[in-house]
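input
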Amino acid sequence: EVRSVRADRRRDMLGHRHAQARGAHPRRQTTRAPLRAVCTLFLALSATWRWLPTSAPAAVPSGELSWGTYLTQSFYHATIVPLLIATVVLAYLARPSTTDEFPAGFRKFQVTYLAVWALCVAADWLQGPFVYALYADYGFSEAEIAQLFVAGFGSSLVFGCFVGTFADKFGRKRSCLLYCAMYILSCSTKHCNKYSLLMVGRIGGGIATSLLFSCFECWM
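output
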């Protein structure tokens, strides 16, 4: 009898765990249908664009390019708006949900953190699209520009292997402040057209990028 009672309890516990596992992530199930719709939309756009007649775009004076002309230049331009809408919808559906109450002062802390974090990320993102044009305007060859880019990405790759240990040892707050200082110096070097100084700036910027995408979350 004791064994039968234990077996019944074990079955009840396993059934309860399976029920919790099935209902633990209801939002993930709701995102499957929109994800399939996005993939279908992307494939349909790709197939439609492939069969459309192509022609060389007419020369348009600078500053007079309309949104319709811009979005129909290529398949890449045509998918910007649909993929942007799909990204916003999926991000909304996949947002984390909780039934627990937030502690007092959480919203203020959230706004403060996101405001500082957004500025730091913007510093990294805003200068990115213009770096190649800047190097080309300085008169560097494509090989030299490639070396500068590889140096930046390579330094981020190497330092990213132990940036977590670095932040734990020297402190997360200090690491975040170090990111700000290093990125200011890295961006300052772009005002000089000397190759060696730009290389130092690229290496420093790569290290700073590793700090950006690790230390801020750890400090929070």
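quick obs: Residues 18-31 have pLDDT under 50 and may be disordered.
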